[in-house]
């Protein structure tokens, strides 16, 4: 299951409920390895770290995605002592971040320190060479694109196929009756507002009626 906002909100809600139910009882969270990570759009900063922290061989990205690593960003204000304390804390965070980058990307801490002096962007192929991901999902994207194309063809061209079959096999009279039926179902309005399931149900009913030999 992907860590989309709805999933993370559900996890937080579960934690809050368990804490409300018993504040003293510990909460256990089990993560089953291996962890698969996939970059769909942009993985910048800590998102790139999460992407690289996946199991080796299971870190992937889409061809149009981008990755970027950088050092922590913070802004301080207040008296001199507070600014100095915040500065030290950011330096500690940077040190830990560099160690994690080096661990998951297979680089030395010195190279990571040098690379994150300024934000460093990676294309998918560059991310593979750097060690952020292991593979680029090209074949899967092609398959998904074909399935989406077939899905839309089934939605928009299946009713046209029914009309053509009625025109060819059953004559103009049944075509007129079918047109009135489609008009009653308000098919053009369905294309804009209804769900795919309801559209499939209407067209499947008409198609099954045709093959069963129903007389209008």
UniProtKB/TrEMBL annotation:
The keyword Disulfide bond does not apply. GO terms for molecular function: ATP-dependent peptidase activity; ATPase binding; serine-type endopeptidase activity. One of its GO terms (biological process) is protein quality control for misfolded or incompletely synthesized proteins. It comes from Gossypium hirsutum (Upland cotton). GO terms for cellular component: endopeptidase Clp complex; plastid stroma. The chain crosses the membrane at residues 136-164. Keywords: Membrane, Transmembrane, Transmembrane helix. This is ATP-dependent Clp protease proteolytic subunit. The lineage of its organism: Eukaryota, Viridiplantae, Streptophyta, Embryophyta, Tracheophyta. InterPro entries: ClpP, ClpP/crotonase-like_dom_sf, ClpP/TepA. The keyword Transmembrane applies. Belongs to the peptidase S14 family. It comes from the Eukaryota.
